[in-house]
Amino acid sequence: MRSTKKQGPDYRRERRMKRKRRQLLLALIFVIFLLIIAIFISTHSAKPIPKEEDPISLGTGTEKTETEPSLTPGAIRLTFDADGGKYTEYGTDGTEQIVMDGTRFGPLPVPAKEGYVFDGWRSNEGTRVGETSFMSFEKDTKLTAAYIPAAENADPRGLPILMYHWFYDPAAGETSGNANWMNIQDFEAQMAYLTENAYYYPSWSEVYAFIMGTTTLPAKSVVVSDDDCMDSFRNMAIPIIEKYKVYATSFMITDWPDDQNRTFVAEHTSENLIFRSHSSFLHVRDSEGWGLVHSWSYGDILADTQSSVEILGAAQVYCYPFGHYNDNIQNALRELGFKMAVTIENRRAYVGDDPLALPRVRMNEGVTMDEFAAYVS
Predict the structure, then answer these.
(1) What is the largest CA-CA distance in the chain?
(2) CA–CA distance, 333 with 100 (Å, rounded to integer)
(3) Who's near 184: CB < 8 A, 6+ residues apart?
(4) In a structure prediction context, what are the per-residue pLDDT tens digits for the chain, which is 377 residues long?
């Protein structure tokens, strides 16, 4: 039965206080809700900060293109239009790349298009861009793939891969030891000739794609290589390579002589010179005059090559000691991921050559400038 007792002033006061507390609590909840909405909107409407990518070192662009601003001062964004082609295993995946002004472009994608051969990347102005030419665009740039009909990919010129060894300086009273030695003044004149005549130095990735018939190379293309990385090359030839910004390869014997090469490669960094394997200990002749590749087991050859790769950090192209090779060393190279190897066969390299037995043009003592021009022209 409901009570009929009259409620007093204390009871009514308590009821009013309870209503006020409920109102304050609801107001507080509403304010918190508005703050949460404001934070959510401010967080999701802000523009994301673009992530800076590592610059890629290693093409010849000279034109100025106006597009979106670069990520950082001196950084240029490259985008690629494959023009109906599909990207292949021979290059990068075709996503945008960031290149720093004044550096070499670095690895670039290599597209394939049915019935055609890739003829290089072109800027809007038509300049061909390659992996080892220097970047000089001022604005972010789109590169478009160029192609030629596959039936026209016959290159009778071939690619000269120059093979140097050791150097001497007559001005210092030095003399030649044998035909492998070259007057350092002659070497400088040759590098100056290449620079003055705007020769392009393809990367080994580009060489491989060329040999496989996947891409063309500029008409004036040449590879500069030296065998052994002996002190005359380090002390005399490298400063000239740096002076003329020639992109060159030193095929290094990593554990000879007396670990000097191992120490040198650890200390020397350059955009103009790369080091690749000429073995660790295989560059020694056996009692019958053959290179050790003919007498060592497959396991020993594999271990020797692996040691060299660990020092140089690259399994890409190999230089056979004395030019000697057999199934054992070629199988070892394949197992380690090498795609190319060079020999001492004296001629230019052509589309369709065996990439694990590429010939080179021997640079001997006494080569005249007319002869040199003929070697590379």
Answers:
(1) 130
(2) 34
(3) 167, 168, 169, 232, 236, 237, 240
(4) 444 444 555 656 666 667 777 777 777 777 787 777 767 666 554 444 333 333 333 333 333 344 444 457 789 999 999 999 999 887 888 888 899 988 999 999 999 999 999 999 999 889 999 999 998 888 899 999 999 999 888 778 899 999 999 999 999 999 998 989 999 999 999 999 999 999 999 999 999 999 999 999 999 999 999 999 999 999 999 999 999 999 999 999 998 766 677 788 888 889 999 999 999 989 988 888 888 999 999 999 999 999 999 999 999 999 999 999 999 999 999 999 999 999 999 999 999 999 999 999 999 999 999 999 999 99
| Residue 239 to residue 106: CA distance in whole angstroms | 22
Structural tokens at position 46: 């802000």
Length of the chain: 377
Measured between alpha carbons, how far is 68 from 62 in angstroms, rounded to an integer? 18
Distance CA 158, CA 181 (A): 26
Question: Residue holding tokens 């523009």?
Answer: 47
Global pTM reads 0.79
3-state SS track over 162-223:
EEECEEECHHHCCCCCCCCEEEHHHHHHHHHHHHHCCCECCCHHHHHHHHCCCECCCCCECE
Residue-range domain boundaries for the chain: 75-151, 161-376
CA angle 203, 327, 306 (to 5 degrees): 60
* CATH node for 75-151: 2.60.40.4270
Q: Look at domain 161-376 and name its CATH class.
A: alpha beta
